[in-house]
Fold:
Amino acid sequence: MNEINLSELDFNPWNKIGKDWFLLTSGDREKFNTMTAAWGFAGVMWGKNVFVTVVRPTRYTYEFMEKNDLFTASFYDEKYRPALKFCGSYSGRDCDKAAQAKLSPKFIDGTVTFEEARLTLVCRKIYAQDMDVSLMAEDVRPANGSDPIHKLFIGEITNIIRN
Structure:
């Protein structure tokens, strides 16, 4: 894994996030969890390079995002699609997702990514807020009112690792 400068990054968010998906991971050597995500964006906020994602409070990863100041967004080659599907279909409360998905945890900068990741954004949480359904446009409001609404997490990108 090699650290790279943000200016060297070729990152198309419509492909990387929405089409290819990513693993959102938070925790430390003692305990961590990962989940597959396809919602988020990257850009500049408050003069900082940031990655933004959302997590429902019912997801196990939510507990780790709340508790920890760091998280990673890691991106993979297509051959890892089955691992991402697994991590999006099973809860870390019930199994060791990394082991079952055949992913190798890599501890870096006080948080977790995976050896198999082609690209990892290491992020420091700088803002978090529950989303408010009443402020959403009608056409994007959840159809099922019983689903908990997401919490928005903004992380300053502190390191970029490329395999």
